[in-house]
Structure formats: C-alpha cells, structure tokens
What does this fold into?
Amino acid sequence: MNRRRFLAFTGAAVASNLLRPSVGKTFNAIGLGRKVKAVAFDAFPIFNPSPVFALAEKLFPGNGPVLSDEWRTRQFEYTWLRTAAHHYADFWRTTQDALTFAASKLRLDLSTDRREALMNAYLKLAIWPDVTPALNRLKTLGLQLAFLSNFTPHMLDANIKNAGFEKVFDQVISTDLAGTFKPDPRAYQLGIDVLRLQREEILFVAFAGWDAAGAKLFGYPTFWTNRLKLPPEELDAIPDASATSLLELAQFLETSAASA
It folds into this structure.
C-alpha cells in the first residue's frame, strides 16, 4: 500500500513511536483518565477494511491497489466536499459514487455485479486482532462503549452483527443522524447528545489523522489508534495520546481506574 493510499485511507497520523511511551503520562497530566465515562470509536479502529481491498484485486487482477487507492481518496474527498457544500448524501451513497468515479477514471469495467460485490464487502469487514480483548477489558471497567462513525446505521449494524458485537456497544451513533460527516462539529456533537455526558467525559478513538484532529479541535479527549504509523497532520490539533493497538488504551484506563 503506497503513501497516497495510506493518506486516502486514514489521513496523516501521529507516529506511534512519538507518543506511545507517554500514553499514561499524557493522559494523567491532564486528569482525563479519571473523568472518562464513555469511549466513542470511529469504525476503523474496530473494523479492518482489508477484505474490500482483497476483493478489488480479485475482481480486477493487477488493478486492485490502484482502484482501492482512487476509490478511498475520492470517498473521503466526497464527504468533505458534500459537507462544505451543504449537499448531503449518506456514506453508502458517497462510497458508491466514489467507486463509480474511480472505475471510470481507470477505465475499468464496473459491472453491476462487481459494483454490488465491492459495496457489500463494506457490510462484512474483518476486525483487528487486538479488538476483542481490548473491548472486553474496557467493558469490565464499567465504561459505556459507543460508535461515532460516518458509516450509515445499516453499515454499522451489519458489521456489528458480523463481528458478534451486538451486546458489546451501548450506543451506535451514525453521523447520518445529523445529515453531515466528520469533521463537522455537528457530527461530533452527536456523541454528547446521545450519551448525555460532558465532552470531557467522552474519550474519542480515531483511526484517521484528520478525524483525530477534528475530534481534538471539537474538544474531546482523543486517542489515536495509529495502526499505520503515519506522521502527524499539520492541523494544530495533536491527539492526547497515540498507539498502534487498542490494548494500550485499555491498559491506561485500567491503571487510571486502579489509582482513582
């Protein structure tokens, strides 16, 4: 996966070796660990989209990486452009439009069957290996767990069911409820409105660098799951801490709870 594809998929992020050693120290310095009552996740710290990329290569041998690159780039550009233009279409429609554009640009034959297969792959994503043990540890702390994602409700529900997480998450929040996408502040506000907590009581867990910056600018304590070890976004908004695994987030919150 080349750098442009990384950026399209996640945005730039804080390299984990810069912030990971100070996860506990960073949070403790501002007292966040003892304030947190809920953890709100973007979809991608939980769900791994690699099956979508693998299917693209299977359907278009030799062109899978470039198709995935162009698709993901346009997918997020469309969310940002629609937000800026106040011309909303949900994430499923936006994702499909981005796929159509990418295939057309690359002169690939995107038949109805191929389009449906690639789109439906977004309903059965894999989960990262550290997710289940990390979520189990967070649940034992009595924290509310939620999604706060651009995914449509159907996309979230399908992936939750596919992963067997129906009883794990207390709230499933799609930005579709506000008719906008992150990083619009109205999207982040949904976490406060639905969870009925103060913003400093909600720890937001991002996958993309731009999402981590957006949540931090909104005022959430922010943890960046920087799985791809990317450099920081230049947006004047550094997440409170970053690591490559959710297990390190669980470890910090456990330590904070034990010292409370």
About this structure: Residues 50-123 form a domain with the DNA polymerase; domain 1 fold (CATH 1.10.150.240). The first helix runs from residue 3 to 10. The radius of gyration is 18 Å.
